[in-house]
Amino acid sequence: GQMKVASVIALFVLGAWSTGCTYTGSVDLNPAYDIYSNFDDKVPGRWAFSSDASDFVTDAVDMDGIQCVFHTYPLDAKQAFETSALHTFTNLVDDIDLVQNPISSDQLLDLGFKGQIIIRSKNMRAELEFIPGFWQAKAKSNVELTASLQVAGPSGNLVGTTASDDGNGKASAGFACEGGSDAVAEAANEAIKKILTRLAERFASSDK
Question: Residues 28-60: pLDDT tens digits?
Answer without folding.
Answer: 888 888 877 767 778 899 999 999 999 999 999
